[in-house]
Amino acid sequence: MTGKEALKRIAALKRHEWDQLEALIRQVVDEARAPLEAVGEVWATHSGDERRKAACVLRALEELGIRAWLNRFGQVPATERLEAAEAVIDSYRVVQERLTNALRPLLDDTTPLPLPAWPGPIEERRPATRVCDEAYLLLRQLLKADERQMTALESERAFLLQTDPERDRTIRRYKDKQEWADLTADDDGKDGR
């Protein structure tokens, strides 16, 4: 399926035709992944020049090759896994850098975001946020991936409970020093301020 065909099918879908949308998604995914998986299969099952060429293709595909590498890990010896892991990490770092570079300029955008419309009653409403607040939280998720999930959730909640000037200081600290504020600290000084 070409890009034009996919766009044509999307345009033809009615608002609540979820089953047809799901079918389109499956078709796009299957058609997009098939050649990548075939190259991954060559890398995992062939030797010599064929294997080297397949590895070269997967490396050149960057983030598109990640899944093909990972799907073959169980089929290859440790040395080949290490080779693929290095390529996957390189690709991951490129994607991470691209996303980081796309999000960082948003840290200066103080445009308020509309509150999400929740269909039913909720326990606790999320405080109003700005573009810079959401960019900060996304960057924190991306770049502080080693943080335990509970700590990450507590830090997000603490950040959202700050006033706009407090959030501005937290964001500025990250921008200036590339440091993440300890938002879960119980001290009254609020992270040394």
Output the structural class. mainly alpha
Count of all domains: 2
Helix content: 55-70%
Uncertain runs: 187-193
What string gives the helices and strands in order? HHHHHHHH
- How much strand content do the residues show? under 5%
Radius of gyration from CA coordinates:
22 Å
Straight-line N-to-C gap: 57 Å
Q: Tell me, what's the shape? A: extended
Instruction: Tell me the total number of β-strands.
Output: 0
- What is the mean pLDDT? 90
Query: What about the largest sheet?
Result: none
- Count helical runs: 8
Structure characterization notes:
This protein is mainly alpha-helical and 193 residues long. It folds into two domains: 3-96, no CATH class; 109-116 and 124-193, no CATH class. Helices cover 64% and strands 0% of the residues. It has eight helices and no strands. The longest helix has 28 residues, at 18-45. Residues 187-193 have low confidence and may be disordered.
Which tags fit this structure?
mainly alpha
Summarize the structure.
The chain is mainly alpha-helical and 193 residues long. It has helices at residues 3-12, 18-45, 48-60, 66-71, 78-103, 131-143, 149-161, 164-177.
